[in-house]
Structures are given as C-alpha cells and as structure tokens.
Design a protein that fits this description.
Shape: globular
Number of strands: 8
Strand content: 15-25%
Distance between the termini: 23 Å
Order of helices and strands: EHEEHEHHHEHEHEEH
Radius of gyration: 17 Å
Largest sheet: 6 strands, mixed
Helix content: 40-55%
Number of helices: 8
C-alpha cells in the first residue's frame, strides 16, 4: 500500500523486476496474477483511466532535443489535453521554479544533463497528475547533481501534494527522500519498510 502524498521507493538491482512492476502500475502491461489498483483504478480493466491520472518520467526521458525548452513544454501540455491559455501561465511558473526562465528559447540539446532531467520531471507533472512514476531519474548524474534533483522532487512533491513512485537502484536517493521502500530481488518483494529500517538490513537488495 502506498499512501496518498507519499514518496515511495522501489529499490532493487538490475533485473529485480522494478521496470516490469512499473509498467503494470502505469497501465502499460497486464499482470499475470494478483491484484492492483492505481489511483483507485484496476490495472486489468481501467488502464486508460490510470494513464490519465499519472505522470511518468522514463530513464531516457522523452524530451525532443531539436525543440526548444518552451516548445517541449507546450507540446506535452497539448498531449495532456491542456488548452493554450492554461499552458502559458503554468509554463511561466514552472520555468521560474526551475530557474530556466532564461533558457526558454534554447534547444534542449544544448542543455546540461541536470537541466534536462529537471525539465523532464516538470513535463511529467505539468498536467498536475495525482501520481508520478520516476524511472531511475538520477541516472548519469554526479552525487551533487543527484542530491539537487532529489531536493527538487521533495519540494514539488510537497507543493503539489504529489504521490511519487521512485524506481531506482540508487541507495542514496531512497534514503534521502523516500518515506517507505519496497525492496525487490529476483521479481519478489522481500521487504517493505522505512528507509531507516531497510538501511539496517544486510544487503536487502540481493
């Protein structure tokens, strides 16, 4: 169970089953057994309703490198069904929050990796979903950049009362911002507890 407004981590090594679980919870794959509900919707019968209720940031993040920062935001706002008069003020606020107001007309390809990840996260929550799934969001960042990104997640999670599902193998991130962790190993959940308790376990991800 994940509480509304919680930052919940799926922690495990590569191949543990994190991505498969995430695809099921995002309404992209069907489970072979068991039951699950996301935002109150059944993963077997209400996948389209789930997709409308969530945001998703992939590990590769799906920004268009040949579009500017503002063009990317406008595009995703349209994909999420927002009208132009809704997109413009939200975009201004978002760019100011990210410190990217001066970069609005720059091509995404010219941005440093840390800024791209901030932008990708912000486009994932631009439509103000109830839940956002973040798949290895700090991948490729140095420790300072990863810590700064975690701080952004924490800040926007509180401001928007988001429920955040963090899929990662980064121990530092889950211990830094998660309120509860599910540890996956060989496609099984082997522990669900607070970061403090999990941290005392002997290699719980193996």
């Amino acid at each position: 169970d994940v509480k509304e407004g919680e930052i919940f981590g799926f922690l495990g090594a590569n191949g543990a089953g994190k991505t498969t679980a995430m695809r099921i919870l995002c309404g992209l794959s069907y489970p072979t057994a068991g039951q699950a509900r996301v935002a109150g919707f059944d993963v077997y019968k209400q996948q389209e309703e789930i997709k409308k209720s969530i945001g998703y940031m992939s590990q590769k993040f799906s920004l268009y490198e040949n579009l500017t920062v503002s063009e990317n935001i406008e595009f995703y706002g349209g994909v999420y069904g927002l009208r132009r008069k809704e997109i413009r003020p939200r975009m201004r606020n978002m760019l100011e929050t990210l410190g990217l107001a001066g970069e609005a007309n720059k091509l995404v390809s010219s941005l440093p990796l840390g800024w791209k990840q901030k932008l990708a996260f912000s486009t994932a929550i631009f439509h103000e979903p109830r839940i956002v799934f973040l798949d290895e969001p700090t991948s490729g960042l140095d420790p300072i950049g990863a810590a700064a990104f975690d701080e952004l997640i924490s800040t926007l999670h509180q401001a928007l009362h988001l429920t955040v599902i963090l899929i990662t193998h980064d121990l530092d991130s889950v211990y830094r911002i998660c309120e509860k962790i599910a540890v996956l190993a060989d496609r099984h959940v082997i522990a669900v507890d607070s970061p403090e308790v999990v941290q005392q376990m002997d290699h719980p991800w193996i």
